[in-house]
Write a structure and sequence with these properties.
By secondary structure, the chain is of the alpha+beta class. It folds into 3 domains: 68 residues, Integrase, N-terminal zinc-binding domain (Arc Repressor Mutant, subunit A); 84 residues, YebC, transcriptional regulation domain (Alpha-Beta Plaits, 2-Layer Sandwich), CATH 3.30.70.980; 70 residues, Alpha-Beta Plaits, CATH 3.30.70. It is built from 8 helices and 10 strands. The strands form 3 sheets. It has a 4-stranded antiparallel beta sheet. Strands 5-6-4-7 form a 4-stranded antiparallel beta sheet. Helix 2 runs antiparallel to helix 3.
């Protein structure tokens, strides 16, 4: 019997991205550097930097490395110049995939990303080819420790625009990216600690895959996520386990 949930797929994706690569510190340093360059060195006014610093703290990245990354991003220290680049493409069954990278060599990165797609039955698309299938938003996943109505009263006043209870009873809170900090603070103030909090590209609709198609697309995702310059991978894929 098939068993699945959006949270299970999110959790599985994050576990793959963070644990299997063995390069989480390097990824965090890049993200902190770029966040500081794009939005300034004050985490109080730069939600992206605050999120990156929270992740660094959870990963036990040293304060010195965090500080140095912020200084490099804000121009106070010299270092490698990183830039952000996004690639969009297709997997099996026309599934949509977005790949966000931070790199010091776009030629190298696009070559590696294209190779990952082509060797696993996918195709690298053009800018905008699949991004319209996603919403750029902040996303929080909460354990079912509060009822939906009470949660809505808390988060709708601070910028959230949707609260969804999944089949697994986990609660999903969505809002525009600019409200990430206000929503997070409102939750934490009430001792509601998200099990997942991110500014993300959320698929508007998901494509369910089973059997060999699921295996093939998993290989594609794994291959993309193994690339050093890749920061995040988003897709509209929902893998159904336990069904042939």
């Amino acid at each position: 019997m098939a068993g699945h949930s959006k949270w299970a797929n999110i959790q599985h994706r994050k576990n793959r991205q963070d644990e299997r690569r063995g390069r989480i510190f390097g990824r965090l340093i890049k993200e902190i550097t770029v966040a500081a360059r794009m939005g300034g060195s004050d985490a109080g006014t730069n939600p992206r930097l605050r999120l990156a610093m929270d992740k660094a703290k959870d990963a036990n990245l040293s304060k010195e490395k965090v500080s140095d990354a912020i200084k490099r991003g804000s121009g106070q220290l010299e270092g490698i110049s990183y830039e952000e680049v996004r690639y969009e493409g297709y997997g099996v069954a026309g599934t949509a995939i977005i790949v966000d990278c931070v790199t010091d060599n776009k030629t190298r990165t696009v070559s590696e990303v294209r190779h990952a797609f082509s060797k696993n039955g996918g195709n690298l698309g053009t800018d905008g080819s699949v991004s319209f299938l996603f919403r750029h938003c902040c996303q929080f996943i909460l354990k079912p420790e509060i009822d939906e109505e009470s949660l809505m009263e808390i988060v709708l006043d601070v910028g959230a625009d949707d609260v969804i209870v999944s089949e697994s009873k986990y609660i999903e809170v969505l809002g525009e990216p600019k409200y990430f900090t206000s929503i997070q603070d409102a939750l934490i103030t009430r001792n509601l600690i998200p099990v997942f909090a991110e500014v993300t590209m959320k698929a508007l609709n998901e494509t369910q895959l089973v059997g060999q198609q699921a295996v093939q697309v998993q290989k594609l995702l794994d291959s993309i996520e193994a690339i050093d310059d890749v920061q995040n991978v988003y897709s509209n894929i929902l893998i159904i386990e336990g069904s042939d």
